[in-house]
Protein backbone atom coordinates (compact mmCIF):
# COMPACT_ATOMS: atom_id res chain seq x y z
CA UNK A 1 0.00 0.00 0.00
CA UNK A 2 1.30 3.34 -0.95
CA UNK A 3 0.99 6.11 1.57
CA UNK A 4 2.19 8.82 -0.68
CA UNK A 5 -1.13 9.75 -2.28
CA UNK A 6 -2.73 9.64 1.12
CA UNK A 7 -0.11 12.00 2.64
CA UNK A 8 -0.36 14.38 -0.33
CA UNK A 9 -4.13 14.55 0.09
CA UNK A 10 -3.70 15.19 3.82
CA UNK A 11 -1.19 17.99 3.14
CA UNK A 12 -3.59 19.58 0.62
CA UNK A 13 -6.42 19.41 3.14
CA UNK A 14 -4.27 21.15 5.81
CA UNK A 15 -3.31 23.90 3.33
CA UNK A 16 -6.96 24.38 2.47
CA UNK A 17 -7.87 24.82 6.14
CA UNK A 18 -5.02 27.37 6.61
CA UNK A 19 -6.12 29.31 3.57
CA UNK A 20 -9.72 29.34 4.76
CA UNK A 21 -8.56 30.64 8.17
CA UNK A 22 -6.44 33.34 6.50
CA UNK A 23 -9.34 34.27 4.23
CA UNK A 24 -11.64 34.66 7.26
CA UNK A 25 -9.00 36.87 9.00
CA UNK A 26 -8.47 39.01 5.89
CA UNK A 27 -12.26 39.40 5.45
CA UNK A 28 -12.59 40.52 9.09
CA UNK A 29 -9.71 42.98 8.65
CA UNK A 30 -11.28 44.42 5.50
CA UNK A 31 -14.63 44.82 7.28
CA UNK A 32 -12.90 46.67 10.14
CA UNK A 33 -11.05 48.96 7.72
CA UNK A 34 -14.30 49.67 5.81
CA UNK A 35 -16.09 50.55 9.05
CA UNK A 36 -13.25 52.91 10.09
CA UNK A 37 -13.27 54.57 6.63
CA UNK A 38 -17.03 55.21 6.89
CA UNK A 39 -16.60 56.60 10.44
CA UNK A 40 -13.87 58.96 9.18
CA UNK A 41 -16.08 60.13 6.30
CA UNK A 42 -18.95 60.80 8.71
CA UNK A 43 -16.62 62.71 11.05
CA UNK A 44 -15.33 64.80 8.13
CA UNK A 45 -18.91 65.51 6.98
CA UNK A 46 -19.94 66.49 10.51
CA UNK A 47 -16.92 68.79 10.76
CA UNK A 48 -17.82 70.48 7.45
CA UNK A 49 -21.46 70.88 8.49
CA UNK A 50 -20.43 72.41 11.82
CA UNK A 51 -17.96 74.76 10.12
CA UNK A 52 -20.57 75.86 7.55
CA UNK A 53 -23.17 76.40 10.27
CA UNK A 54 -20.70 78.60 12.11
CA UNK A 55 -20.01 80.60 8.95
CA UNK A 56 -23.74 80.97 8.29
CA UNK A 57 -24.33 82.17 11.86
CA UNK A 58 -21.53 84.77 11.51
CA UNK A 59 -22.90 85.94 8.15
CA UNK A 60 -26.44 86.27 9.54
CA UNK A 61 -25.08 88.16 12.55
CA UNK A 62 -23.21 90.54 10.23
CA UNK A 63 -26.33 91.08 8.11
CA UNK A 64 -28.55 91.65 11.14
CA UNK A 65 -25.95 93.84 12.86
CA UNK A 66 -27.20 96.89 10.94
CA UNK A 67 -30.85 95.95 11.39
CA UNK A 68 -32.96 97.05 14.30
CA UNK A 69 -36.29 95.40 14.99
CA UNK A 70 -37.79 98.79 15.87
CA UNK A 71 -36.57 100.23 12.57
CA UNK A 72 -38.15 97.32 10.72
CA UNK A 73 -41.46 97.85 12.54
CA UNK A 74 -41.34 101.56 11.69
CA UNK A 75 -40.57 100.78 8.06
CA UNK A 76 -43.45 98.30 7.84
CA UNK A 77 -45.82 100.87 9.36
CA UNK A 78 -44.71 103.46 6.80
CA UNK A 79 -45.30 100.98 3.98
CA UNK A 80 -48.78 100.19 5.33
CA UNK A 81 -49.61 103.91 5.62
CA UNK A 82 -48.48 104.54 2.05
CA UNK A 83 -50.55 101.61 0.80
CA UNK A 84 -53.60 103.02 2.63
CA UNK A 85 -53.02 106.43 1.05
CA UNK A 86 -52.69 104.85 -2.39
CA UNK A 87 -55.96 102.96 -1.81
CA UNK A 88 -57.75 106.16 -0.79
CA UNK A 89 -56.46 107.93 -3.90
CA UNK A 90 -57.60 105.04 -6.09
CA UNK A 91 -61.06 105.09 -4.50
CA UNK A 92 -61.29 108.86 -4.96
CA UNK A 93 -60.52 108.52 -8.66
CA UNK A 94 -63.03 105.73 -9.12
CA UNK A 95 -65.93 107.59 -7.46
CA UNK A 96 -68.49 109.04 -9.83
CA UNK A 97 -68.34 112.79 -9.95
CA UNK A 98 -71.81 114.34 -10.01
CA UNK A 99 -72.12 117.31 -12.32
CA UNK A 100 -75.77 117.89 -11.55
CA UNK A 101 -76.78 114.53 -12.95
CA UNK A 102 -78.46 113.23 -9.83
CA UNK A 103 -81.88 112.00 -10.97
CA UNK A 104 -84.83 110.60 -9.15
CA UNK A 105 -85.00 106.86 -9.81
CA UNK A 106 -88.81 106.82 -9.73
CA UNK A 107 -89.02 109.58 -12.36
CA UNK A 108 -86.55 107.74 -14.57
CA UNK A 109 -88.51 104.48 -14.27
CA UNK A 110 -91.80 106.28 -15.09
CA UNK A 111 -90.22 107.90 -18.17
CA UNK A 112 -88.81 104.55 -19.28
CA UNK A 113 -92.25 102.93 -18.96
CA UNK A 114 -93.80 105.76 -21.02
CA UNK A 115 -91.22 105.29 -23.76
CA UNK A 116 -91.82 101.54 -23.79
CA UNK A 117 -95.60 102.10 -24.00
CA UNK A 118 -95.17 104.55 -26.91
CA UNK A 119 -93.02 102.02 -28.74
CA UNK A 120 -95.61 99.32 -28.14
CA UNK A 121 -98.40 101.62 -29.39
CA UNK A 122 -96.43 102.31 -32.59
CA UNK A 123 -96.03 98.59 -33.16
CA UNK A 124 -99.71 97.96 -32.50
CA UNK A 125 -100.85 100.58 -35.07
CA UNK A 126 -98.88 98.77 -37.76
CA UNK A 127 -100.63 95.46 -37.10
CA UNK A 128 -103.37 94.55 -39.56
CA UNK A 129 -106.28 93.03 -37.74
CA UNK A 130 -108.56 90.52 -39.50
CA UNK A 131 -111.78 91.90 -40.93
CA UNK A 132 -114.85 91.21 -38.85
CA UNK A 133 -118.38 91.02 -40.27
CA UNK A 134 -120.34 94.12 -39.39
CA UNK A 135 -123.79 92.54 -39.69
CA UNK A 136 -125.67 91.69 -36.55
CA UNK A 137 -126.38 88.14 -35.53
CA UNK A 138 -129.81 86.62 -36.15
CA UNK A 139 -132.15 86.62 -33.18
CA UNK A 140 -132.81 83.41 -31.38
CA UNK A 141 -136.35 82.11 -31.72
CA UNK A 142 -138.57 82.38 -28.66
CA UNK A 143 -139.10 79.20 -26.77
CA UNK A 144 -142.35 78.17 -25.36
CA UNK A 145 -142.19 76.80 -21.83
CA UNK A 146 -142.94 73.13 -21.55
CA UNK A 147 -142.19 72.45 -25.18
CA UNK A 148 -139.20 70.53 -26.22
CA UNK A 149 -137.11 72.51 -28.62
CA UNK A 150 -136.79 71.00 -31.98
CA UNK A 151 -133.51 69.45 -32.93
CA UNK A 152 -131.58 72.02 -34.90
CA UNK A 153 -130.30 71.11 -38.29
CA UNK A 154 -126.61 70.79 -39.01
CA UNK A 155 -126.68 74.09 -40.93
CA UNK A 156 -128.26 75.80 -37.95
CA UNK A 157 -125.61 74.32 -35.61
CA UNK A 158 -122.80 75.45 -37.94
CA UNK A 159 -124.20 79.01 -38.02
CA UNK A 160 -124.47 79.03 -34.22
CA UNK A 161 -120.88 77.82 -33.84
CA UNK A 162 -119.73 80.39 -36.37
CA UNK A 163 -121.55 83.19 -34.57
CA UNK A 164 -120.05 82.10 -31.22
CA UNK A 165 -116.57 82.20 -32.76
CA UNK A 166 -117.27 85.63 -34.21
CA UNK A 167 -118.42 86.88 -30.79
CA UNK A 168 -115.30 85.47 -29.15
CA UNK A 169 -113.11 87.11 -31.80
CA UNK A 170 -114.95 90.41 -31.29
CA UNK A 171 -114.28 90.20 -27.55
CA UNK A 172 -110.62 89.36 -28.19
CA UNK A 173 -110.21 92.29 -30.59
CA UNK A 174 -111.89 94.66 -28.12
CA UNK A 175 -109.55 93.53 -25.36
CA UNK A 176 -106.53 93.90 -27.64
CA UNK A 177 -107.60 97.39 -28.72
CA UNK A 178 -108.20 98.42 -25.09
CA UNK A 179 -104.79 97.09 -24.13
CA UNK A 180 -103.05 98.88 -27.01
CA UNK A 181 -104.50 102.29 -26.15
Give me the number of helical elements: 4
Give the amount of beta strand, in percent. under 5%
Q: Give helix % range.
A: over 70%
Basic shape: elongated
Q: Give a quick account of the main beta sheet: strands, pairing sense, barrel closure.
A: none
Distance between the amino and carboxyl termini: 149 Å
What's the alpha carbon Rg, rounded to whole Å?
58 Å
Poorly predicted residue ranges: none
Region (Disordered): 123-181
InterPro entries: Snf7_fam (IPR005024)
Subcellular location: Cytoplasm, Cytosol; Late endosome membrane
Pfam families: Snf7
Commentary on this structure:
- It is built from four helices and no strands.
- The radius of gyration is 58 Å and the shape is elongated.
- Among the domains are: 1-66; 69-98.
- Helices cover 75% and strands 0% of the residues.
- By secondary structure, it is mostly helical.
